[in-house]
Amino acid sequence: MGDFNLALIIVAIVVCIIVFIFNVYLLVNYQHPDDKNQAYFPKFVVVLGLSVALISILMLPADVANRQACRRAIYNGACNLTLPMKDLWIAVYIIDALLVFFVIPFAMFYYEGDQDKTIGQRMKSSLLWVITTAIVCGLLLGILYGLVGKVDFTVMHLSSTTTNFPSSWDFSSNQPCIGSGVHQCSAYLASPSSEKTWTMRTTFPEYVVALATIVGSVLFSIFGGVGIACLPLGLIFSFIRRPKAVITRSQYIKEATELGKKAKELKKAADALHQEERSGSKGRKWRKNVKAVEKELLQLEEDVNLLEEMYPQGEKAETAWALTVLGYLAKLVLGILGLIVSVAWVAHIVIYLLIDPPLSPFLNEVFIKLDDIWGLLGTVAFAFFCFYLLLAVIAGAMMLGLRLVFITIHPMKWGATLMNSFLFNVALILLCSISVIQFCATAFGYYAQATAAQEIFGHTLQSLRGIKYLYKYNVFQIAFIVLAGLTFVYYAAFGWRRKKPSGRFQLSS
């Protein structure tokens, strides 16, 4: 038993190191050339945030393995030698909340500050914003915790009489209690009036985690519901809309000339907006124009990439075209596999969470059977389904960001991602990772039973005063399913059409 626990600790340390190295690799390869050899603090925050998010996702499978470490213990106290998962959960999510609400906003304010200002002025401006946010959040959390920071557990008060120790016991289904009086010790036979409400105050760290989970759950139900459908369908319809053949040189020159003109117009518009920003006129109309320019810039980049795909150049032009075709075939395969996973997720939510009592354990039973085949197979599948939800959230945020004015666009591109986009997406991943864990702990409650995560997210959170009704009536799960269905209908109706940019900057037909 001790050897098993030691191995679990070693695996946890090795995984943390691998996650850190992987995140550094992502940062180095995704960062924009303008950010090389500078912006070190935002980069540190990005690596730390991604590491916390990924480790928190991996902690749920580790929690399951930690529970199994002492399940068949042959001596008392074996569970004391396992990882202190509840303390680790609280620590990770307190760090998560600090990063999302304080550290990342400070890094974004500092990075996006006027470059004409000195470092001290930018830090002062960023600190003022963060301190104001901290005061508001602190007062709000303190007031809410003082007023409604309690959990209400519904319990059944059971009791029985006492008697002398008998020589034989006469218990049966008709006589479950001592004595022949009212059967108040039987939960099955006791009257409904025996139900009581047991109220206790939750700890402040657990309350902070709960409120962060609520904020994340709102975003998760919106972005995740949209993303669970648009992630696989976007890949499939990208294959359907793929370029079918290479264009001629004259067509390429014509399109490239048009794109050059539109790029100049876009630069002129961006310079005008920058002048307005420096003059201090940053009103609603200015923000709307910035959003429009960002959309046009993204569309222009997509047009350039599409043109390069349709007319590969250089000595290895044929090889480049062959790789393009293979890339679209890979999107088709990944889209079909993703669609299977998305359908499995939606079916599991309906079968196991929305229908009471559940029709079947479904994926819970699949993970248990996979564990029977090989010890870690079910755990790996479990972790994959959790990661898939995070990918769905990012896909949903990107889709809605391109269509809704009030959502800022922060695309992630290989070798061309600015630090503010990095920070925004890391904050989104961190905020939604809490809800993904809570959602998975609930959806896979049969597989992840008796874990520290289920104790925090399954009992305390769902019994918290003022919040429990959101979980009692499955508000987030219903919103998730409805948005997934609407997104599927949208893609079925319009997904097959080739995208056309709106506005002046448009690829000529």
TrEMBL record:
Domain of life of the source: Eukaryota
Coiled coil regions in record: 249-310
Gene Ontology, cellular component aspect: membrane
Subcellular compartments: Membrane
Record keyword Transmembrane present: yes
Record has Membrane as a keyword: yes
Membrane topology: Multi-pass membrane protein
Keywords, in A-Z order: Coiled coil, Membrane, Transmembrane, Transmembrane helix
Alphabetical list of InterPro entries matching this protein: LMBR1-like_membr_prot (IPR006876)
Regions crossing the membrane: 6-28, 40-62, 90-111, 127-148, 207-240, 332-355, 375-402, 422-447, 475-494
PANTHER family associated with the record: LIMR FAMILY PROTEIN DDB_G0283707-RELATED
Name this polypeptide is given: LIMR family protein
